[in-house]
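Example 9 (inverse folding). The structure is encoded as follows.
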């Protein structure tokens, strides 16, 4: 039941935004009584903290998997472009800005994800004897920021320039995979 409640909370946040999250909306989604939410989670902040921790652990586990090592920048790009995960991350960050009890956990989760992304890219370069032309941590921030911006814009129907940006990023990532260097094509 614990996981079902967290799943319902995540779905509500992604679909309706963090402002729609309440014990009532979670219970209604699962056709349960509202009290069951408070049986498993003393407060909504506790539920949100556990949701953040679970999401972060899942992201770090994916980043630490062998599947990510062959083409780490593209893997980070694809992961950041996952609409559901990006919307959840954006909403949780917005929520953290307003709820001090959640803020530190969101910060820790974001930093853990960024550290895993940076480690993945650093290990990739080291295994190939390559030196970075851009700091790996900065590269992960740029990819995630571009992705989150596009996901956020897409959620409200703004798509101008998105395909051009995807093509540019894909070409740069192809070049990085071939050469270990990623420069913007002319």
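The amino acid assigned to each position is listed next.
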């Amino acid at each position: 039941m614990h996981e079902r409640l967290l799943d319902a909370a995540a779905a509500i946040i992604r679909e309706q935004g963090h402002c729609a999250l309440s014990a009532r909306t979670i219970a209604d989604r699962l056709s349960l009584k509202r009290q069951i939410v408070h049986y498993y989670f003393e407060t909504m902040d506790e539920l949100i903290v556990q949701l953040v921790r679970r999401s972060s652990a899942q992201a770090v586990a994916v980043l630490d998997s062998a599947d990510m090592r062959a083409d780490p920048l593209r893997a980070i790009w694809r992961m950041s472009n996952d609409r559901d995960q990006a919307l959840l991350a954006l909403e949780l960050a917005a929520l953290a800005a307003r709820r001090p009890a959640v803020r530190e956990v969101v910060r820790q989760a974001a930093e853990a994800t960024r550290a895993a992304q940076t480690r993945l890219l650093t290990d990739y370069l080291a295994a190939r004897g390559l030196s970075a032309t851009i700091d790996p941590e900065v590269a992960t921030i740029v990819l995630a920021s571009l992705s989150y911006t596009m996901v956020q814009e897409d959620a409200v129907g703004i798509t101008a320039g998105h395909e051009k940006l995807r093509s540019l990023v894909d070409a740069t990532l192809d070049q990085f995979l071939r050469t270990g260097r990623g420069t913007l094509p002319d």
